[in-house]
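Sanity check record (used in CI):
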Amino acid sequence: MPKVFLRLLACCTLVLGFGLVIGCGGREANNSAVLSVKATDARGVEIVLPHYAERVVVLFEPFVDEMYMLGAGDKLVGIPQQVYQNPSTYHYLSQVDSRIARKEIATPTFGGRSTQVETVIGLQADLAIVYEYDTETIAQLEGLDIPVFVVSSKDKAHIYDELVGVGTLIGKKERAENIVAYVNSAIEGMATEADSVRKSVYYAWSKGRVFSTSGRGSLVDLSIQVAGAVNACPLPLEAPNVSAESIYKWNPDMIVLWNSDVDDVYSLAELAALPAVVNKQVFAMEPTFFFDPHTVKFLLFAKQLRHWGYHEYTDKNFKEELQEIVGFLYENNMSLE
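Expected output for Iron ABC transporter substrate-binding protein:
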């Protein structure tokens, strides 16, 4: 074989080999850029994953709901027992996931927030989403090298940041940002409609706890403000217990319930003379699934409040608007029925 040809072949081989090295190096860099994801949780801790999470355990019930809003319900391998035990949540999430309907997704929890860590390990989760107060569970999971994204849902900023943070870790960041933009736009639209006279609202906690309320700075307070109303409770506390005398003193225009019945108020002799009771201005948020203030659905809570308090449109118009918002949040996979 001529020496010139051999030299030419060697040069071509060298160039080709160099090109392959550069090409492979470029692909590795691109994969690293795509597959290494990070987000900061409610603690200010940066969670770094080598790739998008595909097997997610959620131990905070409201965030199960938000996983479906993100279009990531298929990534769920573990959820709280309460999802199956809450009739409203179970009914509506069954519409978007047949595994929920058949109760097939594992529930690594006992009553309340107690978690069976061994079950989480068996589920081979590459991400766990845990409520900030479940400190023991957080410590146990992190001690087993399971990445934990802690959520608080304590105000609008945290709800937004946590949604985008989880969206980033599971490959749904754009969807999360679109949800935040949609909710913000709706809030801005409501602000332009607010009446000059702000009605006062007393909120009573679930399961008939009429004398337990939410003070200033709480999530319910956020919903009341977005509705263009004012929280009748002036106390800067998350969940104060109050007396009948205090409620008479505050004299709210409306009383609003979540996961309670209006008769829980109307049957109380202590509040029988309260103007809001006399004037039949006691309302219950039903179905509870659509009005959870721990998620971006604080918007729906506010919309319902505004409809009751300011009568700016008919029941039919409100239902149509509710369906439009629900359609966006669940990508038209859920009905109001």
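Residues 39-188 form a domain with the Rossmann fold fold (CATH 3.40.50.1980). If this sentence no longer matches the regenerated tokens, the check is flagged for review.
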